[in-house]
Amino acid sequence: MSTRLSLADLTPPRKPRVLPPDSGSGTLNIQLTPQEDRLCTLLDQFTNDLKEKRPDLPPVECRIAGGWVRDKLLGGDSNDIDIALSSMMGIAFAELFVPFIEEKGFEVRNITKIARNPEQSKHLETCKATLMGLEIDFVNLRSEEYALDSRIPTKVEFGTPEQDAMRRDITVNALFYNVHTRSVEDYTGKGLDDLREGVARTPLPPRETFLDDPLRVLRCIRFASRFGFELDPSLKESVREKDVKDGLVSKISRDRVGEELDKMLKGRDPLHSLQLVEELGVHEEIFYLAPSAKPSGPVAPRRTSV
After folding, report:
1. What pLDDT score does 284 carry?
2. Could you tell me which residues come within 8 angstroms of residue 97 by beta carbon, excluding any fewer than 6 positions away?
């Protein structure tokens, strides 16, 4: 006699990637590679030089944002660095920074302007460059406002570090590394604790986060499975709400859903991703077919077991 197993029965042992317990010092140090250390030094020197020579421009602070900070704290490496700027657009900053470092003998390669592309979550023009083998993105800190019927912001403005952190998907992706003070900044007040405890939590109330941009539901699932994190209970409750699930269908293109799903299936624990999709009850929204694409003949009943 065959035995049918559900996805929940196929849970392999998962060891979450988390920070070690606090040593009591109260501080967290990121171990920089020589290239990363030199980049931080150059950024600090350049912003001081800019303040001296260009008093017409507002002072600029540089922070490394997001995934690089998370991965370095977890003991990993990342060659993909996002430089978040306090008071300049990425392109304007790069146009001044590149000549400064070239004068010091550093070669900058592959300088590219990335055009605004809201469908790919690129809401502002940014600038990419390669320096000392590091892939660097320059982009300004920002705040965003959304309409009810779209995940594309209706208003994007310069923001404070706190505003920029709060607009992100989960707290562990909202950490900054200040290149001037060489310190980790946690403006949500929860990111470092969540990284220690292995929790995926939204910076803002999850319902607000998901109604603004339902793609964040899929990103939460992907990062939880990638790092073996638990989903915050209030996050789970919000995902199950009808208007959040409706937004997964109405606000996100099938291409974007497919990209996130592809990343899940190619990630560290694709089975856990599918288990979370099943647990949260969003399989129909993720694998939704428009009426025009549905088969005309009879369809086999849906099954959740394997």
Report:
1. 93
2. 43, 46, 138
